[in-house]
Amino acid sequence: MKIIIAILILAIIIIAGGLAGTIWFIAYRRRLTQGKKTTTKRAEGLPFRWSYIIVPLAILLLSIILSAYFYHLLPTEVAAHFELDGTPDRWLSREMTMVWVLMPQLFFVLLAGAIAWGITKLGILFRQTGSTWVRPERIVSFMGNLVALPQLIVCFAMLDIFSYNSYQTHIMPVWIFLLAILGLVTIALGVFWVFIFSKIKGGQRG
Fold first, then answer.
1. Rounded CA Rg of the chain
2. Rounded CA gap, 174 and 187, in Å?
3. Of the candidates 151, 137, 139, which has an alpha carbon nearest to the alpha carbon of residue 58?
4. Cβ neighbours of residue 56 under 8 Å, at least 6 residues apart?
5. Residue 130, Ramachandran bin (φ over 0: left; ψ between -120 and 50: alpha; else beta)
6. pLDDT digits (tens, 9 = 90+) for 16-41
7. What CA–CA distances, in Å, run from 150 to 59, 63, 147, 175, 177?
8. Mind spelling out the 3-state secondary structure of the chain?
9. For residue 81, what are the β-bridge partners?
10. pLDDT in tens, 157-201
């Protein structure tokens, strides 16, 4: 479980960094090809909006509510890690279980906030002179809320732990849910790139 979470954290950092760098390059190149001077007027960065990280915040809130509901249903020693066949092989105290299931959620929210805040400060790079070929708000919102996908995996793993320890049953294998989320990530990134490049081609033809 720890390895999966570490891989997800690394993957979201790489994806967010790669998207940020690519969008900066595309916007910067677009501004250069327009052939308009921008030194006389300095654009300000975008204002930070909570909508940029609304999905990660909602999942964090849901995790807190579920933790509060299941806390008194859990035994003193909680099975917190399982083999591939669903049998537990590691136990934690009830309090430490709560810490370990909520800490990643808080981290992801902070990561989403850092990504959105950092990009809004670079909003000057996305301002277009007379063209709205892509709205910076959409890019920031997409990248900030993209963190919610690995959050869902952590939330599902938490709910599976609660279900097993409270009702002695698993919801489904975590690896199946992991594959489903990775599929959603792939689809979301594919749609994002199609949207970006269609806007670029449209702007070039215009």
1. 21
2. 20
3. 151
4. 108, 109, 112, 144, 145, 147, 148, 151
5. left
6. 555 655 565 555 555 655 544 444 33
7. 11, 13, 6, 13, 11
8. CHHHHHHHHHHHHHHHHHHHHHHHHHHHHHHHHHCCCCCCCCCCCCCCCHHHHHHHHHHHHHHHHHHHHHHHHCCCEEEEEECCCCCEEEEEEHHHHHHHHHHHHHHHHHHHHHHHHHHHHCHHHCCCCCCCCCCHHHHHHHHHHCCHHHHHHHHHHHHHHHHHHHHCCCCCCHHHHHHHHHHHHHHHHHHHHHHHHHHHHHHHHC
9. 90
10. 899 999 999 998 888 877 777 777 777 777 877 777 777 667 666
